[in-house]
Predict the structure of Dihydroorotase.
Amino acid sequence: MTQTLIKNGQVLVGKQLLATDVLFDQDKIVAVGKNLTAEKVIDATRLVVAPGFVDAHVHLRQPGQTAKEDIASGTLAAAHGGYTTVCAMANVTPVPNTAAQLSKMCQLNRQHGRIRVLQYAPVTVDLTTEQLTDFAAMKQAGAFALSNDGHGIQAAQTMAQACQEAVKFDLMLAAHAQDDSLFDQGVINQGEVAQQLNVRGIPASSETVQVARDLLLAAQTGVHYHVCHISTKETVELIRQAKKRGVKVTCEVTPHHLLLTEQQITSQSATNYKMNPPLRTSTDQEALLAGLQDGTIDMIATDHAPHTVADKAGSLTQAAFGITGSETAFNMLYTQLVRSGKLTLTQLLLLLSTKPAAALGLSDVGQILPGKRADLVLLDLNAQRSLQEQDFLSKGKNTPFTGETVWGQTVATIAAGQVVYRQK
Ligand SMILES: [Zn+2]
């Protein structure tokens, strides 16, 4: 018997923070309440105890790009950020086009992951062709869902076929919505700032045109269509209306699209503000927040995209797209959205844990209840610090949030009953 009791914390139970205790035995929560006892006790006085966070969107870069990140460093970084489940995209080298390759990736995830890693399979061969992968075999090999993240699916016929096949095998289809003809080698949002800096702009329509198309196809087929990292006001509205019509659609927003706009991009060297989709306008930012408030947006996901220093060097046009996110998501959102009164603490915690778990169909996590996995995060909201590069456990240091003063520190992260991160 190795029971552990987390005592004296403020615990997220359902949609409420309660002064109560949590007892877990090995990898499962066995009781929530007062007057519980155990040999091993973790004192959570003045700490918030939440379900371990669930990130629907990370890039772990293994195999093939391990100078940027690997499964061990990426999952350790996630644990530092309070995550106990991450969903890894398939844009690694080589792309796992076959069931054998995907099965090997799942094995690597289990072997090196400090927390649970769920693996996306590519929708089409090499993520860029119009040839579907073998969905049945991918599911058999351990795929939790499908995504060509990094690339939009260009031909409508391919998307239609993908929807039909995904329904057959009960696989979620997660879309990086991007019409390449409209994207047209853009670098940052099409608008004022792109003009001032004389770089190519990415119009909002490169996202919205595909989302509109895909929502029609999703409605026809009944597939679970998930939209990655939505960035525009129009996308929020399209999804809001589709949900009203009963389309099985979910979506995510990133911390950076909630916290930043194109106005932060002030020079050619501001490459840590370059990501895809790009930072948009304050009107878009407000619409994203409204989408969180009214439930149109189901979850916050980081799109953690670690890169080497060399990858992010040079001008806006030259640098790679993407920023890290695992280790800054909670503290930045808590500091800038909760402490300013734009979201409540429970809203934020739910958007990082219970809501993504529910939307992704992960019934064993996301709630602190007897029978659920002992996936928990202990947070100190009163701890203030400045985000420093040397504190990041990710190999990627490419974040615009370095130097920010934040509140909200991960004190410990427990995954399947094991302490996988502890504050030093
Ligand atoms: Zn993407």
